[in-house]
Amino acid sequence: MNPGSRPFVLSRRWFSVSFAAVTLCCLTARANSQQPEVIGGRDEAVPRPNTPGELHCPFGVQFDTEGRMWVVEYDGGRVLKRIADGTFETVAGASETGYVDGQGAAARFNKLHNLVIAPDGMIYLSEHLNHVIRSLDPKTGVVSTLAGTGEPGYAGDGGSLDQAQFNQPISIALSPNGESLLIADIQNRRVRELNLETRKLRTVAGNGKKGIPQDGSLATEAPLVDPRAVAFDPQGNAYIAERGGHALRIIRDGRIYTLAGTGKAGKQDGPALSATFNGPKHIETGLDGRVYLADDNNDLIRIYDPETEQVSTLNTSPYQLKRPHGVTWYQGDLYLSDSFHHRIIKLAAPSR
């Protein structure tokens, strides 16, 4: 087993492992009987990548506690909710780019990447070209700035959130206890944590310099290539995907390790440290602890298995993907943002 295979646990609250295992078994058995299907956007044998329909370049997809699907669009500029008849309702934003807090269609965004939904229902959004983290109250439709000034920079650790600065905060993840956001601050080459209770920000990985971190080095003193995505598993373990670094990394006891990827672009499956990716853009974990990566430039979904330390490619047949940017695991199924085909695909999570 490689030295990074026992992850650093950021959260102090643990889910029940036995309950998760039983739930996973039941959900996987049900999910494997289902066929892949398009549940939003274009459902065509040969989709037209440059012709958006109901959805316009969906990136992030998540579910609230009521089981409703929420989607953010990169080019479309909207936050949408899937309603009972299967269509999507615009909750906030419009096609025009801008930086405007406000209610519903009055709000403006500039390149939304992904979203997370807290246990209280509050929605948090990463918006990289406005260099801010936004919040959306689903009850009122009001969009507010949570952190960031709207200008690129690196500031705010330990201070007030209205003085915080990011440089293209491109992905966020919610801790299992709902207390904090992990932020991939890509152009600052850092991963930062925002505590939602104390309203304090801190850096947990990256020293701002570009480079490949040495296994076992202190995460806050190590360089990073370009942290593009972050994710927690149900136990609170944190993962980092590097886009140009073509790698999956993890923090353990304050130290950083590479789990998968050689650092060179490719699409080789097999032993994790010999496997290759090509611009991974988003990561998600299932209850079984496996990590699902949207391998954007390969038009594939890849899986890292920490038990076997192997990387494999998810079979999405009969659908071929075009620049996937989002993958979400929900109740035994995977939901993929097939971004440049302007659709969301649902398929069963594979069993081991």
UniProtKB/TrEMBL annotation:
MF terms (GO), sorted A to Z: lyase activity
Keywords: Lyase, Signal
Signal peptide: 1-20
SUPFAM superfamilies: NHL repeat
Annotated InterPro entries: 6-blade_b-propeller_TolB-like
PANTHER family recorded: NHL REPEAT-CONTAINING PROTEIN 2
Designated name of the protein: Virginiamycin B lyase
